[in-house]
Amino acid sequence: MSEYTGYDGNSLEFLKTNNISIGDSVKILADITYSGIIMPRYEHSDDKHIVLKLKSGYNIGLEISKIEKVEKNPSTEKIVEKNEKVEKNEHLPNILLLSTGGTIASKIDYRTGAVTPVLTAEELNSSVPELAKIANIDAKVLFSEYSENIMPMHWLKIAEEINQYSKSEYSGIIIAHGTDTMHYTSSYLSFSLAGFPIPIVLVGSQRSSDRASSDAALNLIGATKFLTECKTNGIFIAMHQDENDETIACHIGTRVRKNHTSKRGAFQTVGDDPAFLIVNNEIHNNMKTDFFTDKKFEPKIKINEKVALVKYHPGYDPSLLKHIIDSNYKAIIFEGTGLGHIGENMYSMVKMANEKGIFMGMTSQCIDGRVRMTVYESGRDLLDLGIIPLENMIPEIALVKAMWVTGNTENHDEIKEIMLNRIACEFSK
Amino acid sequence: MSEYTGYDGNSLEFLKTNNISIGDSVKILADITYSGIIMPRYEHSDDKHIVLKLKSGYNIGLEISKIEKVEKNPSTEKIVEKNEKVEKNEHLPNILLLSTGGTIASKIDYRTGAVTPVLTAEELNSSVPELAKIANIDAKVLFSEYSENIMPMHWLKIAEEINQYSKSEYSGIIIAHGTDTMHYTSSYLSFSLAGFPIPIVLVGSQRSSDRASSDAALNLIGATKFLTECKTNGIFIAMHQDENDETIACHIGTRVRKNHTSKRGAFQTVGDDPAFLIVNNEIHNNMKTDFFTDKKFEPKIKINEKVALVKYHPGYDPSLLKHIIDSNYKAIIFEGTGLGHIGENMYSMVKMANEKGIFMGMTSQCIDGRVRMTVYESGRDLLDLGIIPLENMIPEIALVKAMWVTGNTENHDEIKEIMLNRIACEFSK
Fold first, then answer.
1. Per-residue pLDDT reduced to its tens digit, B306-360
2. How far is it, in rounded angstroms, from Cα B60 to Cα B62?
3. Number of structural domains chain B divides into
4. Best exposed site among A70, A100, A117, B360 by fewest CB in 10 Å?
């Protein structure tokens, strides 16, 4: 990294004219006065902005044409150590950062306005200098995919990689991941690596790391802080709690969902508070039990993709279910209505699936609340037809669990037993 | 109805011994002191409880073995008029109550503990005597189905029935409906009857009407109050706002979802406040615009069921999509991830669907927030493949809209145009 990495044209000219460069602590007068550190930019950025990291950890882009005055803060040293690899501090814990792609490892292409996944884990690490004060970070790129392209084979790859570190010197593992399917991945890891001795936290961002207003830095800092202080194991997702930058929420990996397309606080623990909050760098533990700490670690890293998620709705054609049955699926997770219902027009197909030995579990498209199939006649009929109510499991997480369970056993009774066995906090009693 | 309808064995004995009967205003000392009116019960109730309607409108069941003392309130007249049909009050507005079944028209079978749909609209009406003070209610049973068994043909039946009353003396129409699929029905009515001159409100309950703690009475009272005072047209859903009995929320019929399996406050307007609140019998208007009042009424009561809702997830097998394409579906609503994405492994099938002229719309499984497909490369690819982003339409509502649109036209350009035309508040700009 040079003194001006990523800057060219007008923005490079601006830095040189004002005698400032990357890592300088500055005060900038524009619409208001900003205090912060000049940050590097990435290739093909526009030449109209400079990026400033504020004390909050928040990066903002300032349009140089609107800057009235720049003042270098002469008393502070440069904070980003340029052209030098950060030396390990033996008093700090060691954290492994695995990057899989996603917005957190993306940059925006200012020519097209689109975001592409290109940052390496090293770049990600060095773009957030605060991390070096909390932990020694070893970074590694596993692959580089948007999370909508993450497939179950990627889950296996991540789990197998992590499995190698069960007896390592690391205090915890961060997985940088796209947000779209982060909760699917976190639940697969929760099941396959249940009891893993150190905590694992998936972290993403809703705005790319090189972008003004990115939430990547704060999410990474929060995740790192969490890993070094949480005193538990288990698999979590760390993201902004809401739109402000004060609080990072750590959600249990099987109880979380992306509930908003674009907000920073898009992830929510369903029906409960997040397990941990990091509020202004202080960690708060909301976990009701030490659920994870007494689990024995016996990795089961297998999967079977022949599991279907069937979301019932008025007008759902039972022949679509028949096609699934005929295609040799091993399990069907229904996303029923209300307490766990599907229309009577589905019963004959459900009977057929039951006779074929296909596991059928019921969840609710309400998302929040518990499935209860003994309240109405219709629910009782479905129980008689072999559908198993899956408590308050989130439909998507029940799907992942069924993929994992049917990947590890073909025995029908065992499948049923493990589906109803609480492996990783995926339902409450 | 007799003086003791529904009471037998111990509970009948109890009433007679204490010289009280249905409609009496009483004070009862048990764990605390309750004041209210003795209510009728329905056939096959147990004989261990009596049902009291509290002033709040709330019904509770009291176990007679725990009652220490009963005092009849001699100064008040019987409030339920027994064996008499309520006379019309010409100073009150007229409301039509159509019953379609569901928990609100159900009773619990105390032998099995299960709930069955059996109350007639008349029984429903007479079980809530407060209604007669707000409006003259004409009640009619359309059919009696749990809402998971409501099919698009039932939507047509309801719409056709309502369509007959476009020039009637009614101030509004209540539809008693099961809660499971109430938002699907409300959105179909919103599209097919857009501009209907009087307001329509669907109302359900999470506990059956004859049950202690039923929310049916308050929801019905709130809905009736709303219809007589709202001064708008449009299609709404009225249910408890939360667990307490103070507030009934009226949600716009296309922006609402059942978000909890069992809570009274299960229904929520997605991403916004409910349009109206009825707080302690006072009506509060939160509508940002008079959206509904200037729509021209041109009923379009047709439907095509060949529309599929495809919820994408890691491991979704594209051959399931191929089966839908091969089965001559007219439209596919994707419930994509995040801002509106599906995996690259789906692209070839999407291309095939596009070439076949199948309408494809994109919504998000996040449920809240807007689809935006221009942010990432992958979203742009999907736009190129012909997928239409459907703003912030709720996936289930987009499905119903596509069924309605493709039922009314086969012209591809027209389908696209109407899907993106705001008919009934189904998305915001």
1. 999 999 999 999 999 999 999 999 999 999 999 999 999 999 999 999 999 999 9
2. 6
3. 3
4. B360
Catalytic (active-site) positions of B: 103, 179-180, 258
B190 has pLDDT over 80: yes
A366, A371, A377: residue with CB nearest B114: A377
- CB proximity list for B261: less than 8 A, separation 6 or greater: A338, A339, A340, A364, A366, A368, A369, A370, A371, A372
Please indicate if any CB of chain A lies within 8 Å of the CB of B262. yes
CA distances from B402 to A316, B346, B348 (A): 14, 21, 23
Question: Looking at the complex, does the CB of residue A195 fall below 8 Å from at least one CB of chain B?
Answer: no
Residue B47 vs residue A395, higher pLDDT: A395
* Domain at B218, CATH number: 3.40.50.1170
**Among the partner residues B319, B370, B380, nearest to A261 by beta-carbon distance:** B370
Boundaries of domain holding B24: 9-72
Would residue A263 show up in a list of annotated catalytic residues for this protein?
no
Q: Are residue B125 and residue B166 in the same domain, yes or no?
A: yes
User: Which entry of A100, A103, A181, A185 is annotated as an active-site residue?
Assistant: A103
A214 touches chain B (CB under 8 A): no
DSSP string, A361-401: EEEETT-BS----SSBHHHHHHHHTTPEE-TT--HHHHHHH
Q: Say yes or no: B151 and B268 in one domain.
A: yes
Are A248 and A381 in a shared domain?
no
For residues B131 and B212, membership in a common domain is answered with yes
Could B324 and A320 be called an inter-chain contact, meaning their C-beta atoms sit closer than 8 Å? Answer: yes
Average pLDDT over residues A331-357: 97
Residue A108 structure tokens: 């925006």
Chosen domain end from B21, B41, B72 = B72
Which residues have C-beta within 8 Å of that of residue B396, sequence separation ≥ 6?
A313, A365, B183, B184, B187, B257, B309
Residue B427 near residue B391, CB atoms below 8 Å? yes
Q: ipTM value, please give it.
A: 0.83
Question: What single DSSP character describes residue A42?
Answer: -
Q: Which residues of A touch B406 (CB under 8 A)?
A: none
